[in-house]
Specification:
The structure is a single chain. The protein is α/β, with parallel strands linked by helices and 218 residues long. It has two domains: 144 residues, Rossmann fold (3-Layer(aba) Sandwich), CATH 3.40.50; 67 residues, Putative phosphatase, domain 2 (DNA polymerase, domain 1), CATH 1.10.150. The chain is 44% helix and 11% strand. Helix 6 links the parallel strand 2 and strand 3. The protein has a six-stranded parallel beta sheet. Helix 1 packs across helix 4. The protein is globular and about 55 Å long.
């Protein structure tokens, strides 16, 4: 049987940490005299690499060293906010175990850098659940470009058309569409009707089975 893969975004999918990210960004930009609107943030920057978010709100190019300094400041805020609440999404562990029992290859593709990936995957004891990880430092173009998911499929040795993507952001949904992969929308950050291309919409993983997800590939 040909290999099949399940590709997971991290923030807002593996865990419900987007409120902490949003609050960290709000506080960070407030320090710089910029007020961000939540709807605009979710629609236009959620899922982007940090440097792209900085460019969007500062309305200028941000040199690498400056971007790194800003990223450290923002991520310090985020981890302090989320650490007491850090936990896996409801039903995720059971779903990952069931998917592995079905012989599926599991990958994580995120715009976050390796330190935030470690904060979540290692902090939750989930790193061993994934066969491959692609983070924001491994690609040249972030979502909505499909590079993250295409590289992840390559590392899993699964054809893109044999992969299903789990995403909570509109930019991530578009990245999966461009990669030719059906999407399961996880509605932690957007209402179900905001996802235009998703084949399935869920709040968490408790109602999902591998068989139900694989039906999207038929």
């Amino acid at each position: 049987m040909k290999p099949r893969g399940l590709l997971f975004d991290m923030d807002g999918v593996v865990c419900r940490n987007m409120p902490a990210h949003e609050e960290a960004w709000r506080r960070f930009f407030c320090r710089h005299g910029i007020k961000i609107e939540l709807q605009d943030f979710r629609a236009n920057t959620m899922g982007m690499p940090t440097r792209e978010v900085l460019r969007y709100y500062f309305k200028r190019e941000v040199p690498p060293r400056e971007a790194h300094e800003h990223a450290v400041a923002k991520e310090t805020l985020y981890r302090k906010l989320y650490l007491p609440k850090r936990r896996a999404a409801a039903g995720l562990r059971d779903f990952l175990d069931a998917s592995r029992d079905e012989g599926l290859r599991l990958g994580l593709g995120t715009g976050s850098k390796d330190d935030n990936v470690a904060f979540i995957l290692d902090g939750l004891g989930l790193r061993g659940s994934f066969d491959a990880v692609v983070d924001g430092g491994m690609v040249t173009k972030g979502k909505p470009d499909p590079e993250t998911f295409l590289l992840l499929a390559e590392r899993l040795r699964v054809r893109p058309r044999d992969c299903v993507v789990f995403e909570d952001s509109l930019l991530g949904e578009e990245a999966a569409r461009r990669a030719g992969m059906p999407v399961v929308a996880v509605t932690t950050s957007h209402a179900a009707d905001e996802f235009r291309h998703a084949r399935l919409r869920v709040r968490d993983f408790r109602s999902l089975t591998p068989v139900k997800v694989l039906s999207l590939l038929r």
